[in-house]
Amino acid sequence: RRTLEECTELLRPYLDRPLVDLLYSDADGISPLDQTAYAQPALFAFEYALAAMWKSWGIEPAAVLGHSVGEYVAACVAGLFSLEDGLRLIAERGRLMQSLPGEGKMVAVAADEAYVAQAIDACAPAVSLAAVNGPANVVISGPGDAVDAVASRLSREGIAARALNVSHGFHSAELDPILDA
Fold first, then answer.
1. What does the DSSP assignment read for 52-63?
2. Edge-to-edge strand list for the sheet holding 137-143
3. CA–CA separation, 123 vs 142, rounded Å?
4. CA triple 38-41-42, angle to 5 deg
5. With 0-12 CB in 10 A as exposed, 13-18 as middle and 19+ as buried, what is 79?
6. In Å, how far are 33, 41, 108, 166, 168 from 27, measured between CA atoms?
7. Which residue, 55, 75, 142, 168, is the most exposed by fewest CB within 10 angstroms?
8. Within 13 Å of residue 29, how many CA atoms lie on the same side as its CB?
9. CA separation for the pair 88, 140 (Å, rounded)
């Protein structure tokens, strides 16, 4: 809790609402964490707070790694940059992502990377292999209609494909418009 409160204070210049309030807000079933500008800093703060808790128990990591927001947390935990700099960076990342039209989609697929790569080949480069989470767990991302088409095809082939609750097609060309910024 202390680490989350510290993150809340450090994020005040970058968020229009206090982080701790965002974590416990759910008006009419709609969470502000569904908005990328809030979700990115909240994920970072929560992951960093978990690392701080483990360290308070005497657990010191020999190595750290992560995916997406987790990469930034891992870099911060490893001492590559300060907590303040990490939060500022991730808040800006979230703001830039939120500025894009929310027309993309992500789908988790219960199949191996090679199978899914072949399935998205016809839609490349619009649909991307966004993450390889395990031997039979990958995520595809891109424009909603193209991702839906691939997911439907996979479902017809008996492959489980589940849409993720995200606002954009992260880890795809959908984010290219913010690269320069």
1. HHHHHTT---S-
2. 128-134, 137-143, 104-109, 161-163
3. 9
4. 75
5. exposed
6. 11, 20, 27, 18, 22
7. 55
8. 0
9. 28
Q: How many residues does the chain have?
A: 181
Q: How confident is the model at residue 129 (pLDDT cuts 50, 70, 90)?
A: very high
| pLDDT, tens only, 73-126 | 999 999 999 999 999 999 999 999 999 887 889 999 999 999 999 999 988 788
Question: What is residue 162's three-state secondary structure?
Answer: strand
CB 134 within 8 A of CB 101: no
On whether the CB atoms of residues 73 and 86 are closer than 8 A, the answer is yes
Question: Which positions ≥6 away from 144 have C-beta within 8 Å?
Answer: 103, 104, 105, 169
